[in-house]
Specification:
heterotrimer, A alpha+beta (about 290), B alpha+beta (about 775), C alpha+beta (about 190), A: about 290 residues, alpha+beta, Uridine Diphospho-n-acetylenolpyruvylglucosamine Reductase, domain 3, Enolase-like, domain 1, 14 strands, about 30% helix, globular, C: about 190 residues, Ubiquitin-like (UB roll), 2 domains, five-stranded mixed beta sheet, 5 strands, about 15% strand
Chain lengths: ~290, ~775, ~190
Amino acid sequence: MRAFAYERPTRLDDAIALIDGHGPDARPLAGGTDLIIRLRDGSLRPRIVVDVKGVAELDAEIREEDGFLAFGALTTMTDIVVDGRVGRDYPALAEAALFVGSVQIRNRATLVGNMCNASPAADTSPALLVYGARIVATGPSGTRRVPLDEFFVRSGVTTLARGELVQAIELPRPTGRRGSVHLRRTRRRGHDLASVTLACAVTPDGVTRLAYGSVGPRPVLVLDDTGLLADPTAPAADKVRRLEMLFAGASPSPTSMRASPQYRLAMLHVLGLRAVATAIERLASGASQ
Amino acid sequence: MSSNHGAEAGAFGVGATAPRVGGLERVTGRQEYVADLPHGDALHVKLVTVDAARARVDVIDGTRARAVPGVHLVMTPADLPQPMPRFGPQRRDRPVLAVGETKYHGEPVAAVAAETPDAAEEAARLVEVDYEELPAVFTIEAALATGAPLVQEPSLRPGDPLATTNILREHRYGWGDVEAASNQADVVIEGTYAFPMVTQFAIEPHAFMAAPDGDGIAIWSSIQHPYWLQRVMADLVELPLSKVRVFAPDPGGAFGGKQHAKYEPLVAFIARRTGRPARLVLTLEETFQAVRRGAAEVRVRAGFRSDGTLVFRDIEANYLIGAYADIADRTVAKGSYTSNGPYRVPSVRIVARSVLSHTVPSTAFRGFGNPQQIWAVESNMDEAARILEIDPLELRLRNLARRGEAFIPHETPADGDWAASVSRAAELISWGGPRQPGRGRGIAVGLKSGPTTGLSYSTVRLLGDGSVVVYAGTSDMGQGARTIFAQIAAGELGAPLEWVTVVMGDTAVVPYDQQTSASRSSVLMGNAVLAACRDVQSKIRTMAARLEGLPDDGIMVDRGEVRIGERVLPIREVLVRGLGRLGGEVIGVGEARKEADPDHPLGGTSAFYEFNCTAVEVEVDRDTGDVTVTRHVTVSDVGKALNPLQVRGQDEGAAIMGLGHTLMEHYIFDEAGRIRNLGAIDYRIPTTMDLPLRMESDTVENEDGPGPYGAKGMSEGALLPVAPAVAAAVRDATGVVIRDLPLTPERVWRALHPELTGAPEVRQAIEGAR
Amino acid sequence: MSGMNAMGARHPIDLTVNGQRRSIEVFAHHTLLDVLREDLGLTGTKECCLVGECGACTVIIDGRSVDSCLVLGVEADGAEVTTVEGLAVDGRLSAVQRTFLETGAAQCGFCIPGQLVSAHALLADVPHPTRPQVEEGLAGNLCRCAGYEQIIEAVLSGADLGSSTADDGRDQGRLSTPAMGDRSATPDAELAPQ
């Protein structure tokens, strides 16, 4: 691994100043499970690594706030997997977090890091998208909130401005009953990078939200408000046609070694149908909320 | 049997589940592998490579690299003896560093030695290599095409009629008359089956160290064959064997990939050049570029009578070996010689080619050339069963050679009750029993010949207090050889297991052993250890005779005891009295040979066969192509399980390794022949989450092997038939035949949905063969 | 950034390794794995894939298992680290170390330090795991010698020495056939419908 400078600021202002001051030469470090791999393979060569784990304003808390559940910048996948509130209200996120790497990786990898890397295959993105997540970013000119759907640009690129750090991710509290689920495709059952990753949420008003990743440069959120997908009695063939429209934007990479575009697209539909069915079941059998 | 022994001596004798010797070190982190050895003043070596499958190297400029503080040497081909020293177990074709042209992705063109790993890594990046990428061949088709670029210069193959092709060698075996037999067949089944390029993926990456040692040289290596390495090194550095000392700490997994020299010559030349110890620990990515198994395409044409009797087999196999021969051509020869399997077939023709390519040199890998052909022949058997409408189990049993049958002419006859293993596997999986919908069952057998030649020596010292030191040149790479030898010595000399020390891995101390391969060590070195123990026993007998004033022939020494008429004494008691005031020890030597047979196509007959039957049940998700192995039954004919716990560990480990190449493992190349999935992220092997839902392993033990107490070698068998068993189960569950490995979800899905994917309709192909 | 040279600056760190306080200086770009093996001489922690896939380098930091190849040495400043060398206490093997010996779980042994550390971390969280929980807990530790069965048995019997529950998880938790990407070990609470 190439040498770099290392700083561990204790105040958010100092962290932002470092990130802002060094611009593209700086990389923030939280869990490090992606960053350190890329430092070693040389695909990232920062002059300075800013470890944000000492910043007083950043924490690993999952906090209930007014109208939403907030995940601190240092919240790890393990924290999410074991959190009862996440399991109860955002099961697709809990399921997705459990898919991220091994125990050792989940103990280190952060939810915020998973978003900031903006990998199209990130497992937690689809769940966060269907739950309407917002990014809380703080930079030299203050704090702003960005809907997650407006955060992703393409693989590795977000709308974060120079000097901005993500402080938290907020999920709106569910306003009623909801059935949701996360599904994915991998090459083996043990931890693996997803060749398709997908989340689905169905609400009693007949709206179905689907988000999918690993089939294009960024994860995509789509919505069916016709009531068709959420209707347990609708013919499967109609649902397939509806999904075809919703998935029209999927454009899997033709050069990936993990799966062919044709397989990914076919699996997107398989997972879509299965997820809709599971979400409907969960909605039907779920306790009121 | 063990109940006859003294309790303390017999508790962990052969046949018992003795705890692993060396186990304590392994569970406490104290076991030292090569990379763990103290290396205070050693220089750290980093390889310099170019990012191409094949390239002409024009200029190597180490100026900037040499300027990095701490760098001692930038070794280029020009810094090595001229002409470039070459080495290899079959042919001396591998250069210490690539000269003029690199032949595969990852072949080093230079190396840097520096005071720290950081400096070596930094400097390696700064070595400037001017190169031009050249067209590479990395598939069988491309390598055999007319006008294909030659991987090896014809000048390296003087007198070889194939020197102007990429065929390194063609092997032809067989008996009977296949052409004539073709007319006697009621049904002919034909198919071509592909086996992927996979890698050993020992969890310990290969590690090497060399140091000047007085007027000689010392080498440390994670090597399976330290004595073979010693010969190679002595030859390369022009020293007598006595001046080349090889230390071979227990490898952290090897699976064949650590049999032969790789970068030991390079670090030795660096050590001699710098006068300093030099050390190279490969990354996992670099091990993927150092060792792999040969890929293969195997065409099988088999003729049957309508009652299922095999009348002929015609097999043509092309193995994609790498740029240098390593031991690959031997894997082709050995894997082909027995590729007709354990069957009685009157006419057989086998043609097998070693095809050179611009890929990582393939080498030994558990199964040694056999899994590729077993995949083909056993899959073909399953297709035949379907077309003949004969149960696949019945079809095997009908054609299986019986004990003593010369199923391969002029070769060791069938040395086991193989039908017993097949029947046991069928029974364990409830072969004829009801199945859940969506599930299918498959069964397959695997046969592999053991060592064809061998030579092992052992020295056993019975020390003055009755404790024992065993010297054995085997490498204990996880198979548990150390434990087996300790068990033999403990049982024979009446010592508690924990009183036995087994010394391995130092050519200056331990007597010669030919190699650790072909599942030979329990048999060959085991017999050598047993013979050395018998030598000690005969000296104890003489001692007892002297003490008792009796003739030798009134005394028997066996299994830790001295029998003098009706009296039974522990060996130790006789020993202590016999040694007397001066003390001392009793030294025994043992030797085990498997003689060569120069007229035999393989240079010798098989010392024994490994035979395994695997039966599996799978569930297939038709929408996604997922294959879930719901049950996996593996039954090996081991002769005698010297340590049942270790036998189980080897069988289950081989089975899961087999599931790796069956379901997920393969190298993926880019369009220019570079390996895309280097490293652990995209080369997938099974994890704890990928196991069969139920694994059952069992053994057949008829004490009919040539090893101690009737043991046979057994460490490879359970891998051999995994792929055809799983594919047969997939066929049983879905009706679809797949002839390419691995059975990834996507490949299975494609086969299941030809209407979507345009995949060839294999079902029809099979019907057409009828 | 004063004191930087080509290899970067050294950072003083204090950490506790296997109960022992250590104060050392480390380069920022050296991983905790490098620091343990090269600076502290603790070679029980093994190096293999360096991408967090194989688990040979697993250690426990402040109660959680991590791949030490994906942690910088400087990040361990102030941390409590347990390596395989710290699993035996006062020369006495832990229960799982003993059961690894008894079940034949250790073959070549190279992955075993990581397997053992993961097993200890798992059992600290879930003292009596089911078989699926053990599979999930050890999925980040590759072994190429064993079929994992003996390792899993070792963890189950180590969890409850002398009890007969070791096999229970097999039939309770593995009746379904999970799809690729299913995690049958997902605790029920997390799958509960809303």
